[in-house]
Amino acid sequence: MRIFQRIHQKLNWSRRHYVSVLIGLLALGYLSSAVYHSYKPLPEGLDFTGKLRHAEVKFIADQTYMDAQGKQQQQHHIFDEMLKMIDEAQTTIVLDMFLFNQEVGESTLLQRQLTQQLTETLILKHGVQPNIEIKVITDPINSVYGGVMPQHYQKLRAAGINVIETDLTPLRASNPLWSGFWYICCQGLGNNVEKGWLPNPFGNEKITLRSYFNLFNFKANHRKTLVVDTAQGWKALVTSANPHDGSSRHSNVALIVTGNTAIDVLKTEQAVGRMSKGDIPMVIVGEFEAEKSLPQVQLLTEEAIYEATLTLIKTAKPQQQIDLAMFYLSERQIVKALIAAHQRGVKLRVLLDPNKDAFGRQKNGIPNRQVASELNAAGITVRWCNTQGEQCHSKMIIKHDAAQAELILGSANFTARNLKNYNLESDLRVLGVAKAPVFNDANQYFDTAWENLDGKNMSVAYSQYADESQLKYALYGLMEWSGLSTF
Fold it and tell me: CA 7 to CA 177: how far, in whole Å?
């Protein structure tokens, strides 16, 4: 105490001076926290670029559309393929899914009970094959960051199935304005499922203030993968689809790949397991490639997706075709690269979700309508998915000419949060001759949506949802730059 008195006497500061210094130190601490957590080292095994290998690869999709009589129809295959892969598994199932819950928001549409069906399938599989190892990795948004205890978690764990909620704390801060404060004040507070008193933004159960504190970080394990070993070898599914009731009507895309690329998917899930203190099985196999006549396939995660996408666009030559189907398009360098490609003679078609529907709630169109206005002004043809309460949730880009094709597809939206080492993401990149079935099927999916083929009214003209508001464009720019957004 005497030491402090002597310091005070020597400094001869007023109370206001002390308060100013204290505020300055707090501000410095906050800024230091925000900057560090935006650029801190990534956990080992993230931002992964896999080996490009010849492999068997298959494209599948979910299509929701209006028929000629104005009735909504669904042709969905991805979830059924997921269930089939689980049934084929011999010793190992590793599933990593972002949204895995029964919530439907305020939607009044009839939804398929994907969460219950997947839960029951996994429990049945474990019952029939008690020695099979099943790991379910998911994002803490499904428990509202520890604010509720989902019943399907309890059922899976009671059946002996390990459910791993991803520890998002080691990931970089995509919303540093909030996270800079959160890492100092709140990250160690934990949560309590019995103390909720605030409305739940996703369901009916009450949640705590601590759930909101965590939510505002806007971090996510946004991956959507499944890896199994079958009698024919290892197989992996990489998709944009969630086993989430409220998402059951969405349009989505997926790729199924076999061989060592499937093992790469497993390796990247081991990284998530280590980060989250969960045990994911290790597999050691020899290097293997399928016949050279098959396409080459490569696993990409996190920022590796961004680099590969920019390269795909920037290397496109005049008269080559680039088709993009995307739920969220906002990342500035990709937008600029698309415009530059158009200016040098690349043919472009951009199909976007109008960003108007979110589980029964109406959205304001940001960011897609603002980016679309920019692309349209540059002369790029844009169309909107003809959504009727569901979302056009596909995430794929394909470049092709008469000889060669390149496809990137998976969980990642083309936003800064999804592509710049903030979220966890998984995509597959496929290269090969343009006539390969995987490219034919992907092109058919896009052409059907773009041109409303086969009596499927899947898209509408740009004018349907055009929004030239400069105020909203400025708001989109601020949200993309700052991270103060959910996209």
Answer: 35
Q: Is the pLDDT reported for residue 296 higher than 70?
A: yes
Give residue 54's pLDDT: 98
For 347-376, write each residue's pLDDT tens digit: 999 999 999 999 988 899 999 999 999 999
Q: Is the pLDDT of residue 110 over 70?
A: yes
Give the whole-angstrom CA distance, residue 468 versus residue 373: 6
Residue 154 CB partners (closer than 8 Å, separation 6+): none
Contacts 24+ apart (CB under 8 A), 201-206: 201/144, 202/101, 202/103, 202/105, 202/141, 202/144, 203/101, 203/103, 203/144, 203/148, 205/144, 205/147, 205/148
Does the structure show a pLDDT above 70 at 4?
no
Measured between alpha carbons, how far is 122 from 230 in angstroms, rounded to an integer? 16
Q: Classify residue 74 by burial, with Cβ atoms within 10 Å: 0-12, 13-18, 19+.
A: middle
- How many C-alpha atoms does 440 have within 13 Å on its Cβ side? 4
Asked if the model's pLDDT at residue 157 lies above 90, the reply is yes
- Rounded Cα gap, residues 335 and 36, in angstroms: 28
Please, what is the average pLDDT of the chain? 95
Structure tokens at 76: 């969905």
- CB-based contact 399:322 (threshold 8 Å): yes
Could you give the CA distance from residue 437 to residue 270 in angstroms, rounded to a whole number? 31
Amino acid residing at 315 = T
- C-alpha pair distances (Å), 281 with each of 7, 134, 301: 59, 9, 19
CA angle 266, 272, 276 (to 5 degrees): 140
Give the span between the Cα atoms of 248 and 245, in whole angstroms.
Answer: 5
Residues 241-266 have pLDDT tens digits of: 999 999 999 999 999 999 999 999 99
Query: Is it the case that residue 9 has pLDDT exceeding 80?
Result: no
Residue 355 near residue 445 (C-beta atoms within 8 A): no
151: CB partners within 8 A, 6+ apart = none
pLDDT class of 1 with cuts at 50, 70, 90? low
Q: Which domains does the chain have, with CATH numbers?
A: 53-275 (3.30.870.10), 296-482 (3.30.870.10)
Q: What is the distance between the alpha carbons of residues 131 and 92, in angstroms, rounded to a whole number?
A: 9
pLDDT of the residue at 285: 80
Q: Which two tokens stand for residue 343?
A: 């200016």
What pLDDT was estimated at residue 63? 97
From the list 343, 341, 299, the residue with the least C-alpha distance to 323 is 341
pTM of structure: 0.95
The answer to whether the CB of 318 falls within 8 A of the CB of 346 is: yes
Residue that the structure tokens 């949802």 belong to: 465
DSSP secondary structure, 409-429, as one string: EES--BSHHHHTTSSB-EEEE
